[in-house]
Amino acid sequence: MPDLLIELFSEEIPARMQKRAADDLKKLVTDGLVEAGLTYAGAAAFSTPRRLTLSLDGLSAESKATREERKGPKVGAPDKAVEGFLRGAGVAREDLEVRDDKKGQVYFAIIEKPGRMAADIIAEVLENAIRNFPWPKSMRWGAGALKWVRPLHSIICILSDEGGAQVVPMDIDGITSGDITRGHRFLAPDSFNVTGFDDYEAKLKRANVILRADERAETIWHEATNQAFALGLEVVEDRGLLAEVAGLVEWPVVLLGKIDDDFLGLPPEVLQTSMKEHQKFFSVRNPKSNRIERFVTVANMETADNGATILAGNQKVLSARLADAKFFWENDLRVAKAGMEPWLDSLSNVTFHNKLGSQKERIERIAALAREIAPSVGADPDLAEQAARVAKADLSSEMVFEFPELQGLMGRYYATEAGLDASVAAACQEHYSPLGPSDDVPTAPVSVAVALADKIDTLTGFWAIDEKPTGSKDPFALRRAALGVIRLIWQNELSIELLTLFTHKISLDDISRSASEALSNALELSDFLKNKGFDADSDNIVAKHFKDWILLSGEEASESAWENVATSVDLLSFFHDRLKVFLKDKGIRHDIIDACIAMPGNDDLTLLVKRAEALATTLATDDGENLIQGFKRANNILTQAEEKDGVEYSYGADIKFAEDDAEKALFSALDAADAKIAPAMKNEDFSTAMTAMAALRGPIDAFFTDVQVNADSEILRRNRLNLLSRIRNICLTVADLNKIEG
Amino acid sequence: MADKPRSFQEIILRLQNYWASKGCAILQPYDMEVGAGTFHPATTLRALGSKAWAAAYVQPSRRPTDGRYGENPNRLQHYYQYQVLIKPSPPDLQELYLGSLAAIGIDASLHDIRFVEDDWESPTLGAWGLGWEVWCDGMEVSQFTYFQQVGGHDCKPVSGELTYGLERLAMYVLGVDHVMDMPFNDPQSPSPLLYRDVFKQTEEEYARWNFDVADTEILLQHFKDAEAECQRILEQPAEDPKTGKRIIMAHPAYDQCIKASHLFNLLDARGVISVTERQAYIGRVRALAKLCADAFVQTEAGGAAA
Asked: Which residues of A144-164 are buried (b: 16+ CB within 10 A; e: fewer)?
């Protein structure tokens, strides 16, 4: 069982691509070998800045011969059919065998493939892998046509066993395989040959190359933390940076340097970002002062002066960088302390979206909305408005221009320097949150108001200009914005009527048709819709309710009011879809959510979630589950009877016509439930209401066991149907149980 | 050449000698305002077509937004780039490059020299390539690029391009902290000159003009004129009615493209170009660069059959 060693030696491979490339090499080669009939015991892939390496052990020396019999057409079948079969099987006509089959004589093809030597298969598979390698970006070089991430220089491809090592011969656009590689570019540039993986790894180490990326990372971390510890300091952990730096060196040498005193007054985030982004330095913190005071750089070189020249050079570069950062910081502070006006003015030159105006116009809208939302989140309206006005000012600052990832954070520093209220400063940083699904949700009222206003303005804006997400396309991250709103509302248990808010906002922003009459019409219409408890699944529902509403209100509503409400309803149903995804992750079934969305007040997401949670809890109990069956049975019987008789059985059932005990018991159970459910629903105490509803399970089951609804007496039958109608009505006040599956 | 150079100009001279010894034609700077050495037609246009090429030159470069009145230790609105372009890129280009660092006194055994991913893209030239920024002790000393496309045309064969930021490199080699303190000529010469003696005043003058005084109306008009002239030149028939020869005026047209690009940089420094407009301006310059590239590949130097 020979072992295989492959090394693809090239000019420097970008650090961020190395790990993936090693994995891809492993997959492409092992898949290819296995498909060609070879087996192997183990495989491992490695990467350094200049090489991708694959080691396979226990490879079969050759693939097995195979023999396959394939049944073909009947003897005497049309020529075309026979030829097609020959092509498919890859055999000649004279090689076909004729055999007796149940239905007569049939052609058989015997396909025999001889075994192949591993070397032949490897050469083919590796060439294929190199020519089709999935680099994120690849290039040509010189006059050639071969593509690789950077110029490819040499290939090791050897098979080794007890008898020694043998080169697997191959030639890819003039690069021939061999058993030769090179060590570190400067410390051990000479070439040497290798006989197998262990020999290769050992010789590389002697030639100042650590083959394994995790070993390089460990060396770096160990050495960095040791050096910091010796000074009573600690290295700020950054796994991404560690992996990147491990991909920039073959022979890591850790050097600890000082940050010039002039720069220690910069915010620690600025120091950290500047050092990381530009120089790939780790930050070293003094745990006592919590300040970043030093840095760690990782060189790829051992020198006679123990890195003194290298460290001095790095320190000098850092000082130049930080001088820039300090220049930005000081300029920014001047503007901040003077009230940030120039920044806000310059935002009027920044287009947010060509149909939605400039950043400055957007900020005006957010400020108005933040003020409107403030009371429902417990924030001071003045502070919320002020926070919204300055929250994006830092986008014009020099520091954020240089380091866009510091947006928000710098805003907080600058607002603090400007002497603004601490809650306003915090909102500058927090109003972008939550961004990702695991991002923290702000809880400070002013931050919440601005965060909501920012996201809702984005959503209503893009909805109004009909730029909604489609399929996988969501260029303005609107799904993320909606999820952000949901999480803000849910986590802070806010009670906000979103439909009113959307309608109000879309109508206000809609400059072309901002007639106040249209606005009040729109608000009245959206109120009307909410009291009905509309079904957001249906596209026509707004139109339908709109007509009802015109009939009821008896006045002409304007076209634009209708459009704005339709847009708001559509946006709300987008929220409902996002909410379903959100609650599904929390273990609540989609049909339960649907049953709650179909109820009035479904634009108050906290209410909606509470209802859904209570319903999910109830349905998880034995009573709850069986109640659904009882409800469905009652509903089915009732619906059939109503269809048959052409009437609605909603006239109150009368206990005086009740004959059976079970029937009488149901009457009193419904009375008792009513007495509990109605006040509970009024208080939005869903859990009490649903417990009371679930308690109906026993009486309903008993009723169906003992009582024949379709009695011979028409009076009894009608009374019982009216009784079923009470069951239906009571259940439907809690949630639309028709939507529950199963 | 283990000895250290003593002045800015000695570093330039050593680079000239080094690349001349490696077979490059030593060209002179292009006589127009450009933002980088890449804009020199010896790079942009000569990277196109199938003919072999090897050239090296100094290119004075202007970046109006980087002006700091000569006060920042490393930022200048006018600086020098050293540019090498070899087509097809030789297999030992990295070693050749490291040889050039040795030639200017950077001892690879004492320093940490690294090739760090940096893909180059010039939206105004419609060009891109893959390569690295070369770091010496954490400082970027050069750009190293394998050109893949210029003016929308695939580069076949591929050119290898090296760009050295001369001031920064020289400051490092000479151990100077502020660019203005750097010896320009030999400090032992009868009239030793520092960088400040040559450029401090001009940095101030241009910074003031670039940021506050340049007449944006005029600049805008110049931009439009350059754009129109570039297009007009390339609309001319290939055959010259006077001489009867086939003369495609790729270079005169490209001059106008360079002009437009620099005018855009000036307008940008004056802060009169909004974020949305920016893209539109860059697109307009790119369209010109593409037209020039299209024209150049029709010429003999661009590899078209004579």
From this structure: bebbbbbbbbbbbbbbbeeee
Q: Do the strands A357-358 and A97-101 form a parallel or antiparallel pair, or are they unpaired? A: unpaired
pLDDT confidence of residue B181: 97
B158 to A314: CB separation less than 8 angstroms, yes or no: no
Report the number of distinct structural domains present in chain A. Answer: 4
Note whether A350 and A359 are within 8 A (CB). Answer: yes
CB contact under 8 A, B130 and A320: no
The C-alpha angle with vertex B256 and arms to B254 and B257, in degrees rounded to 5, equals: 60
Q: Which domain holds residue A260?
A: 213-336
Does residue A392 fall inside a structural domain? no
Same-domain check for residues A192 and A224? no
* Amino acid residing at A32: G
Which spans in A471-555 are helix H? 478-491, 498-509, 516-532, 541-553
Residue A153 and residue A52 share a domain: yes
Mutation site, B66, B86, B117, interface A, largest A CB count within 10 A:
B117
Residues A202 and A324 in one domain: no
Interface probe with A: pick from B87, B93, B112, most Cβ of A within 10 Å = B112
pLDDT in tens, A651-688: 778 888 888 888 889 899 999 998 999 899 888 888 89
Biggest CA–CA distance in chain A, Å, is 110
Q: Do the beta carbons of residue A16 and residue A66 sit within 8 Å?
A: no
pLDDT digits (tens, 9 = 90+) for B203-220: 999 999 998 898 989 999
Tell if the CB–CB gap between B109 and A16 is shorter than 8 Å.
no
Is residue A254 domain-shared with residue A147, that is, in the same domain?
Answer: no
Q: For residue A376, which of A452, A441, A295 has the smallest C-alpha distance? A: A452
Secondary structure in 3-state letters for chain B: CCCCCCCHHHHHHHHHHHHHHCCCEECCCCCCCCCCHHHCHHHHCCCCCCCCEEEEEEEEEECHHHCCCCCCCCCCCEEEEEEEEEECCCCCHHHHHHHHHHHCCCCCCCCCEEEEECCEEECCCCEEEEEEEEEECCEEEEEEEEEEEECCEECCCCCEEEEEEHHHHHHHHHCCCCHHHCECCCCCCCCCCEHHHHHHHHHHHHHHHHHHHCCHHHHHHHHHHHHHHHHHHHHCCCECCCCCCECCCHHHHHHHHHHHHHHHHHHHHCCCCCHHHHHHHHHHHHHHHHHHHHHHCCCCCCCCCC
Q: Is the pLDDT of residue A405 over 80?
A: yes
Regions of chain B where pLDDT drops below 70: 1-2, 275-276, 306
Mean pLDDT of chain A: 89
Task: Write down the pTM of the prediction.
Answer: 0.76
Residues A155 and A123 reside in one and the same domain: yes
pLDDT digits (tens, 9 = 90+) for A709-741: 888 888 888 888 888 888 888 888 888 888 888
Residues A158 and A45 in one domain: yes
- What are A545-578's pLDDT values in tens digits? 556 655 555 555 566 677 777 888 888 889 998 9
Domain assignment present for A413: no
Please judge whether B115 and A11 are an interchain contact, meaning their C-beta atoms are less than 8 angstroms apart.
yes
